[in-house]
Structure formats: structure tokens, C-alpha cells
Amino acid sequence: MESKREYQQKMRWRYARAQGRCYKSRLIEELIALCGYSRKHAIKVLKRRGAPRVLKKSGPKGIYQEEVRLVLKRIWFASDQLCGKRLKAALPAWLPHYEKEYGALCEPLKEKLQAISAASIDRLLAPVRAKARPRVFKSSLVALLCPAQRTGAVHPLAAVSQERQCARGAKELDPCALSVGL
Q1: 76 and 126: one domain?
Q2: What total of structural domains would you count in the chain?
Q3: How far apart are the C-alpha atoms of 52 and 139, rounded to whole Å?
């Protein structure tokens, strides 16, 4: 690809200094034969000045850099892939655990994480969500807490909790209902 650009640049230089229609026509035909362009496109390539324009991204510059995305990504995976609204509410509880695991966060980064909105969290995690495997709904929170639940034994907290159906048909326990029996 780079050699093609170099060739086009050399041809542009030759085309700009060419004297006469006949010589310019031969340069266009040479470019068509080597690059496989149509005649009109070859003329546009030869008349173009310098490198192609790179358009700047419109809008304000991003506030949240890659380190914020990294922290959010790790907390998001650790918190069982919560949505942005719930992750925003859970961040103050998760930050001390994150700091124990990965080391202390600098103050400006902490302030950004505390001030970030749920919509911004969703925007920052969108590429991560696209690559992550589909979320698996847990049949109950008790199954995560109690190994006896996985074997089929009934846990006393399971009777107290209220189950509800999710959109995908999996059962999900209300965490508030689990604290009633304690």
C-alpha cells in the first residue's frame, strides 16, 4: 500500500510538470494500467494535492481517558456485568476492593470515577460489552454464596427470598429480600 502511495506521489509530480495534452494522457493511461483505476478516478488522483485529508473528529474532546475505562472494565467484570445505572450506584462500594486488588488510585482518577454519569459508563463500556460473552443470569444469589444450593439442598434463605422472572426467562433473586431473614 505504501509503494502505491509513493508511486502516485511520483506520478502527481510528473503530471503537474507535464507539458502538453498528449504527455498527460500517456501518464493517465500508465496509472490506469498499473493501478486498475477508471480514467476519471485516475485524473482525480493525479490532480489531488499532497496527502489525503484526514477529517478531525467533531465535538468536544473526551473527558475520560483509557485509565478510567480500564478501572470501569475491571469493576464491571467483577460486579457481574452490571448496567451503567447500577454500576454508578455500586462504584463507591467497589472502589475500596479495587484499590486492595490493584493498588491505590490517584485522586484525580477517583474524582472522575465518582463524578461519571451512568450514560458515560455505558458509552465507555460499549466496546467491552460487544466483545464480552453474553451475560449469564444466575439462577439465584444463594447459589453463589452457598455450595449446598448447587447440590440441590434447599437453603433457608432461599425460602425467604422472592423470585422474579427476567426478560430472558431466567430467575433472579431480589438482594433486598435476602437480608430480611438475617
Answers
A1: yes
A2: 3
A3: 55
